[in-house]
Protein 1
Amino acid sequence: MSNLDFTESQYHQEIKDLASDLYEDAIAENDYDHDQAEDAIFAYMLHQLVDGHQWIIYTYSNDLVARFSDNAEAYRDCYDNESIGQIVTDKGLEGMKPIIAYFAMYQDITDALYELDAFCANHLRRV
């Protein structure tokens, strides 16, 4: 999806599509070994995907990600109140928007991965 303005249903469809594509890419790049693919996803692939997504790069879309995400508070797992206060002091409230959007989208895609039949079937064999 290339539009910076999107609806809630478009957001959730994009998350599902990104999760599916991410798993397909990871499994193909790792010789169809699920364990290696999962390790690659959480070691670097998911970060690269989210960090480079236009909805994270462009501030306009950050607000929409936070509004439509099921995980808009996910950033709190990494930032305590003191850290948040420092960011706001240094960069203003605008400085928090890409952080909130990044962690929200990261967690939404993670959740979507665990809803994929192929990912779950292979993940359950590993546990």
Protein 2
Amino acid sequence: MGTYIGQWYTHQTVGAYDGHWLRDATVTDYKSIKAYFERARTPDKGKPLRSWARIFKDGADYYVKNWGSELCRFKPNNTVVFTATTEEVWHSSNTLVSALHRAMPFAMVRIAKGRYRIAHNEEVIKNAKESTRSECYTRSEWYTWLKKEAPEYFQGITFNLKTGECLNRRPDDKLIPIPEKRKEWLRALREFKKGIKVRAKMNVFEGISDIVATGGNIGYYDRPDWSHGIYKELLFTSIRDAKYPQDLLLGIAKSHRPDHSWTWQRPSPAEVVVATDKICNTYSVELRRQFGVFEK
């Protein structure tokens, strides 16, 4: 047995290409997902896909929901569009990284916190095959290509289900910082975090938590999604301008979760600081990109 890398063992010969286990997905294209859904007992409630997803129909589209949020859509032109945000993928990353290829013809791998690469299984197999002259493959060969060369995931990434080609791949970020902009960013981030810490010590978040509590039970998936939309812009402008609107403070309070808990609890001042650090660290690359820290 090879080396465990958190998901698969490497350097282990596991078979020939023609019988590749990545070809065992339940649905593989528009035709197969249509036929699979037509067997649903109650179409309005969806058709179970493995144990962690359900398929629904919307017009001519078939979409897959994963733990309550939409993951992707299969289109009549035999393409699939991944509609989940990076935050939603992160919330279900253990399932998607380990089991996506069993449900549909895609493999996903984590490359950093909140960042993933994804590719059609046939592309993974093809590139693993090209990297070796053997009649058999090893998991290390396809895993290496997937982690280093596959397209990076983003909301809206689209694949041709017939060819496996990614139709709108984004160039990989070089992330080369501009020294002056980096200093400006770090100065703004320090001031922002200092302001949060002061407000936490002054018990501002006690009143904020009262507002959150009056809104009823806050579930795990009711947390703000800082990866896109209004919360992404709110976080960026607040750091840039050193401002602390109530919506920002409410979002930070809602984002707090005690360790090993799915339910919201009122954060202490120290936990507010920790929650803020986690949000800023998780979306650091996107925030710095928006701030103009990196060379284009």
Protein 3
Amino acid sequence: MATAKDDGSPLKKEIHDEHMENIRKILRPIKYSLIDLFISLARVLFFWLPGGDVGKGQALMICHFVGGCILYTLYFAYNNPGLRLFIFFFFFFVIGQQLIFRGCVITKAEQKLTERDDTILDPWIRISGYEPHRETRIICSITVVGTMALTLLMNTILDQLRIF
């Protein structure tokens, strides 16, 4: 096998692409297992809702949005270092899974249940006067999640630097 040069040659890119594809093959079953887990949880937790899977998917979407807001609010509402550290690491775990799995597994579960491609960001994108599509969702995700993550990061660092 020929060796790749360090100058970004096509051979190096091909090796990198092959490596990334191997990683995706390994992670794909984990991603779909997590999606199936959230679908099953929604069916069990929201069995009483009318509307079949669509109603359960919409309920999961509401819990997804409200849960994130509650965690973010709890972080700033309580001055409990253990709770704050847990929420801080949880948010970075969520960001990591979004990067690794190319999107949120809960959103994918919601989309499978509702059989639509709506996300929890779509109402906010529409309120802003834009139509939700891949690019606006990516921009909105980066903006919202990035802002939340940076405020948590800055606050956690400043909290840890505080000397009592």
